[in-house]
Structure formats: structure tokens, C-alpha cells
Write a structure and sequence with these properties.
The protein contains 9 helices and no strands. By secondary structure, it is mainly alpha-helical.
């Protein structure tokens, strides 16, 4: 249930992104919060405002439901969304919100890659996360960790491609809303198929 909540802000972003005229600098959502619109990027600004508000509400709910605590990665995503979303809205410049997903995925990739350096037994963080359900050798855990590093590097690369390279970012909103979900589900299915004999539980 909790992973699904993470997609709510993205869905709200996509709906506002698609339904807002990019030339509408006086969109009600912008004027309500006293924000000035941009020249031709108001669909992104409105979507970003919806993303920030929805993220605060979702993580506020998680904070309360998790007995007034958030996981480190949840704090990180919340902080990045508020900071880069805030910069986007304050400067009416969508460059910063486009950059957010790239940096988040790179940060996760780097964190996984260097995680063995910060554990006493030199185990990657993936071992701790999946140990309850998988039985792997030391080599297997290392390979799985690098597979996850590769996943986040791939997603960072795809976000860079769609945000800054492909057709001037014309399809960036669509990829932001659904790209991560599609890539992640595909990766999880592949992981399940490859590791199906190593599951501890039925």
C-alpha cells in the first residue's frame, strides 16, 4: 500500500500537466498561492505545485501512520521535491523540477554502490532489505546490489534524455508520470523470474 501512495503525487502532477494550457499564466491554482506564471511553461508550473502539495499531504499521512517517523529515503524524496519544486515555482523555471528525478535516481545509485563501505560486514544494503525473502551467496548479493545500481542509473539516464534531450522535453511529463513505474515493474518481474529459486517463502 505504501509504495502505491508514492505514485499519487505523480498522478496529480500528470493530470494538472495535461489539463493546463501552457500559456495560461493566470491559472487559478497559481493565483490562489500568489505565484506568477511563466511564458510557455505554465502546465509544468501548475503540475509542480500540485506535485508539491500532494507530496506534503502523502508524506504527512505517512509520518502520522508510521508513528511520527519517516524512513531516510522518504525524508530524502520529500526534501528534494520541496526544494526543487519550490525553486521551480519561485523562479517560474521548470529546469529545476526536471532535474529533480535525475538527481534522486543518481543519489540512490551512488548510495547503493557505496553501501558496503559503511557496513561492518561489508554487506550491501540490498542484503539487509531483501534478506527476509531471499537466500543468496555473498557473490549473489553483490550482483543483485549492482543490478539495482544499474536500474537507478538507467532511470537517471532516461529522465535526462526525456527532460533535456528528446524533442526539447516535449514528452517529459508523460515519462515522469509513468516511466519510473514501467521501468520498475519490468525490473521487478525480471528479478522475480531470475531469482525465483532463491525465495525463502512460497
Amino acid at each position: 500500500m505504501k509504495p502505491l501512495l508514492d505514485f499519487i503525487p505523480l498522478i496529480i502532477f500528470f493530470i494538472l500537466y495535461k489539463k493546463t494550457d501552457k500559456m495560461d499564466a493566470n491559472h487559478p491554482l497559481l493565483t490562489t498561492f500568489g505565484l506568477s506564471g511563466g511564458v510557455d511553461n505554465n502546465h509544468i508550473l501548475v503540475g509542480t505545485l500540485g506535485l508539491v502539495i500532494a507530496t506534503l499531504l502523502v508524506y504527512g499521512y505517512l509520518f502520522i501512520s508510521q508513528k511520527f517517523r519517516l524512513d531516510k529515503q522518504q525524508w530524502f524524496v520529500l526534501l528534494m521535491t520541496v526544494v526543487f519544486g519550490g525553486l521551480t515555482l519561485a523562479l517560474s523555471d521548470d529546469y529545476y523540477i526536471r532535474l529533480k528525478a535525475v538527481l534522486i535516481n543518481l543519489a540512490f545509485a551512488i548510495g547503493l554502490a557505496i553501501s558496503p563501505l559503511f557496513n561492518k560486514n561489508k554487506q550491501p544494503i540490498i542484503h539487509k532489505l531483501f534478506d527476509p525473502i531471499l537466500s543468496l551467496s555473498q557473490s549473489g548479493w553483490t550482483k543483485l546490489n549492482w543490478a539495482w545500481v544499474g536500474l537507478f542509473v538507467l532511470m537517471a539516464s532516461l529522465h535526462t534524455f526525456f527532460a533535456f534531450i528528446f524533442k526539447g522535453g516535449e514528452y517529459w511529463g508523460e515519462f515522469t508520470a509513468f516511466g519510473d513505474m514501467i521501468v520498475m515493474i519490468t525490473f521487478m518481474i525480471a528479478m522475480f523470474i531470475i531469482l525465483r529459486k532463491h525465495f525463502k517463502i512460497e
